[in-house]
Each structure stands twice: as structure tokens, then as C-alpha cells.
Amino acid sequence: MDVDFLKIIIPEGRIFTGDEINEDFSHDELSEVKKYPDVVVEVLTCEEVSKIMKYAYENHIPVVARGSGTGLVGGAVPVCGGILISFQKMNRILEIDENNLTLTLEPGVLLSEIAEYLTPLGFFYPPDPGEKTATIGGNIATNAGGMRAVKYGVTRDYVRYLEVVLSNGDVIELGGKIVKNSSGYSLKDMLVGSEGTLGIITKATLKILPIPKCSISLLIPFKDIDGTISSVPKIMKTKTMPTAVEFMEKKVIIDAENFLGKKFPDKSGDAYLLLTYDGNSKEEIEKGFEEAIDICFENGALDVFLVDTEERKDDVWTARGAFLEAIKASTTEMDECDVVVPKNHVAEFVKFTYDLSEKYDIRIKNFGHAGDGNLHVYILKDELDEEDWKIKLSAVFDELYEKAKEFSGKVSGEHGIGYAKMQYLKENESPEVLNLMKGIKKVFDPKNILNPHKIIDVI
Q: 0.90 cut: is pTM over it?
């Protein structure tokens, strides 16, 4: 690779090689996959990205796009070396269009920055992934979900327009501020969730909404997991749709307490539902959740706590937001299964993880989005030696994904496939579907230089 040529494109101070490359660029948040790129380039414009891709295309050099590196499946790890394009400095909010309810921005803008910008203006971006330091580009690349998906949907539902650099350096524009579009294949939606394997996003326009005037959460302890999860399908059939339906186990709450040094409002149940409702008035919301409360008590709820004060909201949601870090801090190493199953199989799947924990003598912890069937199952290494850990982790993953397939579920609900889950995607999709995926990859990236060895191998 001719680094001197790259320096013609990118000014000094934004290109890093060898010992100059920060260790963070060799891995993501959780995956064991680790590999340094040959060069890191910090970009500021679409034009810079286009010039880098033209050079990479002509010279068959692999390129990986990276935001904050908060992924959990090795999606932004440069497993083939090559060029890593960092978008952390390409982080401007470009326009808010209140008439069309859109926000246009660069891919390096953080989720937290979107909220900080929109809230004073009376708007919000509905997708609510838990990691607020993630970039919007990364969220679009993985079609991130989050807690509000039950009512509002996922990232793909809010992407109106994309500016994309293709593998050969060409720049295309997909979509617009329009609401409807039946003009041929939806390439925009294909790019969302493609994890940087089809093109590199350099600008996006998002749909935004006015902030609901009122929001109230209910924390509901249950005596067991059966009552907790069996309540969910019934709640989803009530007249008022919850914004979020989260489930959590007592042992994960205790991890969060230890991690935060902060007490959770209640520990009377073995499992909990956290329901959130939003609307235009407190009275409207209360009418909506009264039926849900009755359903929960019919299914073994021990109590209902109204989370309507700032102090209680902080206690509950700070704990919920810390679950991943808390579990991580409780062990030496861990890996995650981001499985999604039909909602009526959630309880059975969670109980299946208990059986696996006992069968393999390994700790497994759960929490997730009960309202949409997306579960986060964490397998913990603790004091296992490396050989036992690898054997048990592989066996547990095999059984988890096989069970998900049995329930007509999918490998990932929101974190993507990346590098770490490629084999499970291969095992859980038909040859016909996999061949279509390979064909799409070859059309967009004929030289296989865009984030190679991610999602699916075309070789």
C-alpha cells in the first residue's frame, strides 16, 4: 500500500500507521476478534472517502468503515488489514427540516448528540438503541433496534435518504425527504443493515417526530419468568400500544446495583417487566395502561411501581442502561447471543437458557426486548480455562441458535452478523437465500474489498 499516495488525499495528522494506530481500532466492544489495520484514515468529507475508495478499488485493498467501535460481533474489525476509515470527525448535523420532519447529518454523529440537538427543539429520533455513544452511521449499518421498537420501529423505518460511496469510489444518492417511494428496487433499505459490505454511508436524512408530551413507565415484579413473559402477548393486544416492553431478571439487576453502587427500587421479584407508555397527557396514558396492569396481576405480578418522578426514572433507567456493562464487569470474559424469536416463544427460550446453564455448568444471563422477541443472552467465562471456555461457548451457541431456528427465529435482532456470527447465519438460512446474498454482494462489491469476511463470504 502506498501510504504516501493517501497523504496526497488526506492532510497530515489524519493518517496513522504502525505504532501510531490506537489499539481501539483493532477490536470492537465485545468480540474476541482482533486485528490491526495497515492504516487508519480520519475523513471529513464524502469526496475524501470517494478518493480513498477509488485508490483501494484500483489496488485491491480491503476497506472497513468505523464509527465508535461499539459493535458486538466484530463488524468493524479489519480482519484483512488494509484501510480503516474512521468517521468520528465527520460528525456534523447539517440540517433540521421542521416542515418535512427530517434531520440530515453525517455518519459520525453520536446518538446522544442527536437527542441533545433535538430535545430543545421539541423533536426526537424514535429508535433508541442502548449504546448512546454509538454513531448514527454504525446504527444504520446494523439496522439497530432498541427499546422503543415495539411502538416506533427500528432504524430502517427512519432512514429517508442516504449518500453512499460504492466500492469503486462512485457516489450515489438513495431516497430523499419524500415519504413514499415505489420507484424500483429499494436500494436504500438494502444498504441499511449491510454492515459496510455494500457501500459506505457518508450522509443520511432521518425521519423525526414531535416529542410526546408525557411519558410514564411501570416497573412490575413477578414471582417467576413464566408469569412475566406470558403477560406480554396479552399486553400487546390491548387498545394502547406500549412504547417499550423490557424484561429483566433479578440477578442482572443485582449486577447493575453492584456496578453502579446504586440501589434498584425493588428486588421482590425473580423477574420484571418494564413497560413504558407515552402520549399527550397523563390521563390518556393512565387509561391506556390500566388494562395492562390488570393483565400483569392475573399472571402473578407481585406489585406495580409507577416510574413517574425524575428520581425513580433515573434509578430504573440508569440500571437498565447499565446491564451490559454490569454483566461484563461481573466476569472475566463473555459473549452474546442476540437472538430474536416470535413473542409467544420468549418464555420457553429463556427457560431453555437455564437448562443450558445447568447442562454445561456455565453462567448465562438474560435481558431483552420482550415486546419484540429480541433477547440478549450472555454466556460468561468466569474462571474457566481457555480450552473449556471455547468448547462450552461453542456448544451453547450451537444449541441456542438451533432452538431459535426451531422457533422460526433469526440469528440477530439488532446487533448484526459481522464476523463472529457468520457461521450461524450460514447454518440458519437456506442455500437459496445465501446465494442471493452472495450475488448482491458481488454486484455491489465485485472485488470484495468492502469489509470482507463479514456477514457472508463470497469466495
A: yes
